[in-house]
Structure formats: C-alpha cells, structure tokens
Amino acid sequence: MKTITHTHNHQNHHPPTQKKSSSLDILYPLRYLVDGIQVKNARLAHLICRIIPCCCPFERSIKFFGYTFHIPPLCKLNPLYDNFVGLRFRALSYLTDECGEDVTKYIC
How many CB atoms within 10 Å of residue 75? Predict the structure, then answer.
C-alpha cells in the first residue's frame, strides 16, 4: 500500500485559533465561580440537578391560526450555559459515583 503525502497548501484553510489571553472577558469571574463549585454532598447535588434543567425549557412549538411557529432553544445564547451544564454534570456524577444513587429521574 502506498503512502499518500499531501504537499500543497489550501488557500481557504484557516487553522483554528485559540482565544487570545489579552482579550477582556467580563464574565470570567462568574465562569470561575461556577466552575469552582465543588460538589461534595448529596443535598447540594440534588439541589443543582433540580435547579438546572436537563434540556432547554424555552424551546416551544406554538400553533397560531393553523400555522406552527417553532421557537428554537435559546439556552445557547446564555454566556454561562456551558459552565452550568458542566456543574450539573459534576452533580450527576457525584450522585452516581460517590453516593451510588439512581439519577434517571434527573435525565430527560
């Protein structure tokens, strides 16, 4: 089997760039705070799983005069969405791994 070598450059290829450290992220303190929450007891883990929904609660389909309008999930517009999803995942993992609980009631 022959080895294929790729020698020419693609003009439209732009390698992924990482976020510059010099950019100002005004939400960094909140991100740091949410990411720093340690889930160390079952009561806190249950509270987090109840407060943070497993799916976006804003997605809807509305029927109006025979037309159906779909409102897409808007949670991705929340700049802290990924941080909250991570916190919920840590809480679910704690309940499963450390407490040995069944978390199916918290999963959509």
Answer: 15
User: Are the beta carbons of 52 and 101 closer than 8 angstroms?
Assistant: no
| In contact, 88 and 37? CB cutoff 8 Å | no
- Walking along the chain (108 residues) 10 residues at a time, the average pLDDT comes out as 55 52 82 95 96 86 88 85 95 96 92
pTM, two decimal places: 0.69
Q: Please report which residue ranges of the chain form alpha helices under DSSP H.
A: 28-35, 42-51, 81-93
50: Cβ contacts below 8 Å, ≥ 6 apart: 106
Distance of CA 70 to the CA centre of its chain: 22
Structure tokens at 57: 């609660």
Tokens 């804003």 -> residue: 58
Q: Record the tokens describing residue 3, joined without a space.
A: 């080895």
Query: What is the structure's pLDDT at 18?
Result: 47
